[in-house]
Batch of 2 targets.
Target 1
Amino acid sequence: MTSWKHIWISLSLIVAFGLLGFFVVRGDGFGGKFPFRFGLDLVGGTELIYRADTSNVENIPDAMESLKEVIERRVNIFGVSEPLVQTETAGLASGSRDERLIVELPGVTDIKLAVELIGETPILEFRLARENTQNILETNPDASIDELFESTGLSGRYLSRARVEFDQTSGAPLVGLEFNKEGSELFAKITREHKNEILAIVLDGAVISAPVIIDEISDGVAQITGSFTPVEAKELVRDLNYGALPVPIKLDATKTIGATLGEQALDAGVKAGMIGFVILLIFMVLWYRLPGVVAGVALVLYAILSLAIFKLIPVTLTAAGLAGFILSVGMAVDANILIFERTKEELRKGKDVYEAIREGFVRAWLSIRDSNISSIITAFILFWLGTSAIKGFALTLGIGVLVSMFTAITVSRTFLLAITFGKMTPLKKFLFSNGLNFSTNDRQLTTDKKQ
Amino acid sequence: MKIIQHRKIFFTLSAILLTFSLFSIFSYGFNFGIDFKGGTITEVSFESERPTKEVVEEKLSILDLGGFSVRPSGENNYIIRTRELSLEEGERLVQVLENPTVERQNTIGPVAGVELKDKALKAVMLVILMIVLFITFAFRKVSDASSTQTNRGVSSWKYGLATVVALLHDIIIPVGVFVFLGHFYGLEIDLLFVSGLLAILGYSVHDTIVVFDRVRENLRVNRETKVNEEFEATVGRSVTQTLVRSINISLTLLITLLALYFVGSGATKDFALLLIIGVIVGTYSSIFVASPLLVTFSKFRKK
């Protein structure tokens, strides 16, 4: 009996989705590794959008990457939990290429402080270690850069370029520095007067390398030896090249959302989703009876699968994103409704339930496919439109439509076929028919078929 | 249900709604939010007692803000819209109001706003274009069918045309209603509005395709079983067959949207309202406008 196969598949689907549901709900353990990511409009915080002036930069992606890292370092000093720094290329399609830097600081509501911290130009400095560094560190492990190193006046301003080199004997990677004329003189003076001392290279207040001066360097060329991996050497070179001369940035837009407002928005969004969902389930069961129950189960599984995908990608959930998801729940029912209406028609033609469902699926599939493609086109273009709030909406809607197509043709179909076992009884017929029995011209269609 | 026979009534109703919408769009104009025109929006919350709107306006008038608007929100909040403020000016604004809690303060430069408007317009046009192309593609076989059975059906581009008319109908009316409400209740055209509009576009086509798909199928069945049926009757039958589904899907969508409107966050309230209007109009148009139009188009050819 074929329906036994469907019963087994249905049961394993329920178990599998049950486990997935556990993953969605769990805040710790494996589920906790993939937490939901909420947008600033739901948790509160500050968003700063900068426009980068890349007119004088040759390698734009490299420069933006370096800028991003410099800003990330600054943000980390600020001690914000889960900050997000991203670069974005806007206007690719419209022709005017526009590089943006977006900084999201959850929980920070003092825009001015945030802007001051990030807005500074990154600084590269060469500093000499003070004589009693060891003693200072022993008495005060948290001693600041200023306490440990004294300024030499030599900074990134004097660096003409840095590059990766390799030691000729050992083959170990080195970082080669080249100063301009002014810098060369200053560097020669420092190295002459402070042999065997430590000259630290400090970027944005953090020591990135602390080589020992071995001899006077008068030609303005220096090497930083250290146990670099080739990757580290490359990164340092990039920081030195761009850290000294970063991409100029200009503040374009700011956004601050208080924590209470965000919390309220999140609560309200979740509550709206729940209420909508429950009323929807009641409506489906009342109208479509047994298949309605199946649709309800399919909807629950649909919600679990979508939420799991949101966690895994991860999709940043914003107020608009939640709205997109809630909308997609309404759309997800459509596939089921299309199938049920077709099944009902096939039943009227006198087919048995199993055949009617099979046929209903086949016939509804074209409608489901073609109608959903238009929604996917919309979601795709919306996503391309950019801006985080809209992207969130497009992504949740798009994922929702795709997942709903998947659950309709796999989950709903298997479940329906699984419950059709046994003989047709009046009760069963009642359970599988629906609504208020609208009279249609179906009879004519039936006679057509018989011809 | 004699929807097709009575199509003139429905066409008239749509024409009235369209006229009203276009009138409201052209006479009131769009009430753009800061997303599109740049500026600063500040929402502040007064913990104990919220001062009256007049008091807030008076306090703000000390600052050199130019034109600004104050709108109450919730029980304790005010939303203040101003020109683009620098960080210091933004701080001053809050100080002047005797330091209420800043719920949000968003600033967008005018340049970014203009760019975004341009981009949004392009996106809407692109969606319409892609959808027309898609429909012409999806219904290409109907064209073949009508070429062999000259008396039955219309060519595929007419399905596309009917869809586009329905689609324009479905965006113009919600935009008109929204502009009307915007004029009297201060609803704003922002980015979320544009995405809502695009969602309506998607839904409108989605809904129309389901009916047209049924016409396509019935035409095929008729051809296979050699039944001679007037095109008008075939469309009428298809609309009736998909009627329950059309109504039910709009009901399920309205359930979720109404929940979003009444319970959801304030940020998506206007958005939900726009979609509610869109879903009602979109469902109406696929039943009462797009399908009857197919019949009208087929009559043109016969003349």
Note: The mean pLDDT of chain B is 83.
Target 2
Amino acid sequence: MSQIISKPAIRRLVELWLRQGKRVIAPVQVRPNLVSYQPVRGPDQVLLEGFVRPLNSIKQVVFPRHEQLFQYRVRGKQIDLLPAPLPDIERIVLAARPCDAAALPILDHVFNWEFRDAAYNRRRELTTVVTLACTEYDAHCFCTSVGSRPDDTRGSDALLLDLGDGTLEVRHTTDKGQSLFAGQTQASTRTAPISPGPERRADLRRVSQSLEQAFERSEWAAWTNRCLGCGACAFGCPTCHCFDMVDEGGPTCGARVRNWDACQFGQFTLHASGHNPRGVQSQRQRQRIYHKFHVYPKKFGELLCTGCGNCTRNCPVSLGVLPVLEAMQAEGA
Amino acid sequence: MTTPASNPPAGEFEPKIVAYVCNWCTYLGADLAGTNRLEYPANVRIIRLPCTGRIDFNLIVKAFEIGADAVLVSGCHPGDCHYTSGNYHARRRWILFRELLATLGIETGRVHFAWISAAEGKKFQQVISEITSQTRDLGPYRAYREICEICEV
Amino acid sequence: MLQPLRETCRRLLQDGTVQVVIGYGQAVRAVEPYPVFITAPDDVGQLVWNEQCRTNLVKYLLRKEIRALGKPAIVVKGCDERALVVLQQELQIDRSQIVVIGVACDGMDEPRCEVCDAHQPRFADHIIGHATNEMQPAERRYAHLGEFLERPLPDRMAYWKAELERCVKCYACRQACPLCYCERCIVEKNRPACLDTSATLKGNFAWHIVRAFHLAGRCVGCDQCSRVCPEGIDLRLLNLSMAREAEASFGHRSGTDPQAELVLGSFSQQDQEQFIR
């Protein structure tokens, strides 16, 4: 016995959620060849088929690219600090890919490590993630190389699977997912086929061992020379989470804010003294690989990567973690 | 988007005009207006720089960011620049920058340019009065203030 | 064209004229060609040439990691090589220390290719293939901008608010641009800060205004910025508006005349305008 729901019924739900004042984030056709997750204003914007995966990720829902920590106001000798209120709007992510949802439990580790990020946790509580299993993949997808699959349920509150005729099967619901779809689905005997996903390129859960010996290899430059040092990979990545704290404003008012940052920027590790321990791009690229496939797993037991392929898709020169790791492994690592 | 408003009752909307002026011509022209007791609207905030050649295009944007309703950039007449050619460079820059503003949909009707010399106290009075009354008709420049509100994420 | 291209590069490497060839490589057809840096003559088989070779490789002449590889040869299309002209005028490269391999191009299936007048490279040391350069009138070359400017002013503002809302400040536009080469970009200055670095509407407007204007009269229209933007923002419109005005008011087209003066670094006493009181 399965539970199914029609695509029009899903769109009616979107309308209901919006009327209830909830924020709905879903894949949207931004340009003829660009799909990205955006807050929707109406149900017709939501894409439920016809794309591999959006070019951005859903981390922005719980870890926004710009966040106010507190405001300051100066009046004469009076200085007031006004902490930002905790978020309180419910969010529903609809039709997220499994590789996006799987990133959220991975991020939970670092945002609850020595310091528990209250705003992040609040957003996690307020967010319900409904995933849409993949039926196709492209040359950049590699979820099967990091221990994931097109119907992975990690981080998902409800998994939708396309039955191919305008209806979706609803599976694996958590309590949040249950309450979202309660009374909205019908029982059925039909079940959706599962796509096998992209062919496994490597077992990247084991690459940590190779990385142990590879740090001083001179080939890092050759493997990563074409990197231009932008942040497109980091910002499109579901698991990258580096940030920069900045004070913005003037002498009388302003705010301390937290913005996304990227380890590939030339000045990411620039010290106040002027010394830069990662002054060359290959050092920065090497660090990215180590963070994701060696350091994070050692610390938290999970890869900082869900195999979505956005790094390569967004990269102006098609670099990204898989090409670098494959180059490394091809040269006997 | 602002729509022209009919003249509001006195005391309702008073435009804020930021005037970036060069030290050697327009600033002295403004001073001359003062010494000659030529009254001009108090809506203008004058910011003195050495030369129009030094006026970064960013300053115009920043004026709107902090709530200006109109901006004036003014300096020496061509040929009279205290630094010989600063105003020629500025003129080139403004020719291009206005096009960028127009492409972005920023109201070029709120960005004014003038050559006002140290002897033209009367002209300074006239230009400020004109700009003030034009801007009063245009209304406050809400569009740029909206951009500067921090987005809720 | 591919064989002559590879042969030329092999010779240049073999006889030591250059130490590295900067060209296009492609591992699989499904992934667009990407920059490769060939140092061994036998590796020239990695070079490809097809209608997907859109990237402008000129930026790499300024990247210190690539300069460290030695004297370069670089593969350019007619549009890319305009950047070489500007960089030479701005004293950022020494043209005599670079071997330029121009490849004749039929177009890379982009809108700007339809109005291109530089299919045949004009400033190269070696030219592979042959194409003809047809003069294109300015209205055609700036048609994309012309259409946009038919929208009323408030609509233009609404358009940019919607577009720049998506900008995440990844700076892919800046990093890919051959003419953005400041060692310390204006957004990286923070004592005091000049612009908001935040990816808010205010910060995004500030950044794109600054970048477009710092490129005014310099941008060669290679469209790298629009192409690499992960959010699909049409930055081309901003650059076109500066290029169109520079051409209309000052007769200047960046990167087409090595003898021309830099447009904002020079002036004429006869510059005309109608808007200064």
Note: The two ends of chain C are 57 Å apart (CA to CA).
